[in-house]
Write the structure tokens for this entry.
Amino acid sequence: MTGPVVLERRDLHASLADPALLSMNFLNEVAGRFPEAVSFAAGRPTEEPFDTADLHRYLDAYCRYLVQAKGYDDTQVRRELFQYGRTKGIVHELIARQLELDEGINADPEAVLVTVGAQEALLLVLHALRSSERDVVLAVTPTYVGLTGAARMLDLPVRSVPEGPQGLRSEDLLDTIRSVRASGERPRALYVVPDFSNPSGHSLDLETRRRLLRIAAEEDILLLEDNPYGYFRAAAGDRSPTLKALDIDQRVVYLGSLAKTCFPGARVGFAVADQRIAGPDGSLLADELSRVKSMVTVNTSPVAQALVGGMLLEHGGSFLRANQLQIGIYRRNLERLLTGLGRRFADVPGVSWNTPSGGFFVVLTVPFPVTDGLLELAGVRHGVLFTPMSHFSDGEQARWQMRLSCSALTVERIDLGLDRLAAMVTEHSATLPATAAGSGTTQD
Amino acid sequence: MTGPVVLERRDLHASLADPALLSMNFLNEVAGRFPEAVSFAAGRPTEEPFDTADLHRYLDAYCRYLVQAKGYDDTQVRRELFQYGRTKGIVHELIARQLELDEGINADPEAVLVTVGAQEALLLVLHALRSSERDVVLAVTPTYVGLTGAARMLDLPVRSVPEGPQGLRSEDLLDTIRSVRASGERPRALYVVPDFSNPSGHSLDLETRRRLLRIAAEEDILLLEDNPYGYFRAAAGDRSPTLKALDIDQRVVYLGSLAKTCFPGARVGFAVADQRIAGPDGSLLADELSRVKSMVTVNTSPVAQALVGGMLLEHGGSFLRANQLQIGIYRRNLERLLTGLGRRFADVPGVSWNTPSGGFFVVLTVPFPVTDGLLELAGVRHGVLFTPMSHFSDGEQARWQMRLSCSALTVERIDLGLDRLAAMVTEHSATLPATAAGSGTTQD
């Protein structure tokens, strides 16, 4: 066989053509084709606080910390930034302190594994938990496409725990666990975003959190708690503690994304994996994960870690303090989006939405199918983009829903986008028979 | 089941306890326990050129390039550094240009996938090539532990192509391919470091390179060419072109590490994967790999990429030019190591070594087994460290060999380390029966 190589799809791992991976691609590609559209599609952070001078300052702040707090000399500082380094990371102590300050989570720094974004942490945990072909992971559905994609890459089946209209109910988790076990599979963990979930915007109340921890203990599964949005609650007032803060038996692996609290370009995240491994050395799950990490990315760029560390140091070790501007922006935007939806759709038959108390996302239900075709049409004819919920769930309900993200927009663009969305809804509703159900919001 | 979680090893993926992954850990741990020892163990780059001011300057140089060469405004520059970005990376054009300048490799920038070190690139390629349980990867053995570890993580078997005393012979590759096929397995690719291989230091001559490409075409396998050391040849004079430079049929996936030419802390590497995928859209393997990358690390930190880009821009786009100081240091060190070995071991029965023409590594053969226990003893009693070759190969020959790395040492430390090594060899040789074979070097 000579001549240029042509690889056949059947000779490549099946995950490469998996809907979960193609979906991410399609969404990026659509966004690229309509750069002028108002995009409620992108779940990215606001760009308002970004300032290149910060990068230089963060780096210097971290170097000063190495000298002053750690007693490093110049050679050691340079080695820390430039050379290969600790697989588990170098800002683990700062992260442990941040978790205590901002979350009341008591994390042993040795149980903190710094990763290339929370995505790598998720991949490593899923990999570790796949000990045989019987093992499966559970996911609250609709779910983050990064969970589905990573699991597909690892040939780890994902079993859905469907969300109700108010979010996850613990009885649905129990039902799923039982039916999964009945089919001979072994559920290892539940992937859950307890605060302002992506994509649905739901949050778990305190009682549900406690019940999840109880079920995890009784059913011997872990909880993979992903918390990218927890700091961004809309109204002042109590936020429920994270699952990890309530976790006394190490049932929770906490996945930390810093893409929203620091910035995505750092590509720094982490896992708190304080579970003990049976055996004489009693190592932590974090140590086991770090061995696999050394085969995935070797270690997380210490320069990138220094940027995160420097940002923390500038704000007394707290992301909550570092994000005061962002918290205000996201609160303002979510309010504007919800008010704007009310103004435009309150009396439109068949249109409803939830009212998350924070985060980036609102789910809008419409009386016509929300397909990829509709998304393209919305881009071409109406200049507005959103994410069809069918990318996050195979369920029937998701077919009529779209995720609206308001995190990276100005209030003017939110208003403009909603006007365009309303025009699209009017156009499509006009073609429907007059059977549409009630309107208005469902409560979150 | 209540009370603190204790995870059983049998419930975790088998790779977590795999010798390849444990080996990396053990070696790091030993190095940590003897910080005062002269370490011929670490394959890390010299720290002499590291300067924190460079990081600031590289970042600024890249930002200027975005403005001047790309016409970016301030918002676009900030977005590029801080926000989520292109999965395939942002310095792909600079890397393609560098490959042309320094290597004569003609790479389509769209076929360049920027990764979190070459390790991630390797993982992604191995993952893509595992389409069924029949698929295996071939590796020139002794081999880099990062190849073995990544393959174990992916449940992809590695089949060895043993190196002869002068390095890889194409007939051994053919033999392995045939025996692998005879056992019902399908060889997908050969992993090979053609220049100054890790761990053996061997290089392939031009004729062997051409033969590998011919075999790859005839046997329908890919060549995974890893080239971390190619710029560091000891003597002036011709270096054989890379496999990728000779590759006219896209048989070669080129894996680029920048840990040695730029610095390890950037954690930036890349793959050139210009293989076409069958089908109407004719996408490149790089595009397929990027979809999986989005499930592993999302994208490579753009700040880290900017550092690499800035370094290239400061040196006219060439790593060869950027590494003049390093090339001199490695040349000097390898010469010192080889001269020092000759001075101390030329007449010692049973001791021999190869004479690589560049790179970081020399393999020393001794008349007693080189075990992990011996390494510990060397640390405790002699204050010198090395890497037992048994970490890179199960073969009989490797049991009597150690890898010596001279990249991160001064000439004074090399001399001191060799004195200590000689003391250890004398001590251990004294306990042997007088049956040891000849002495002196084998030619590389």
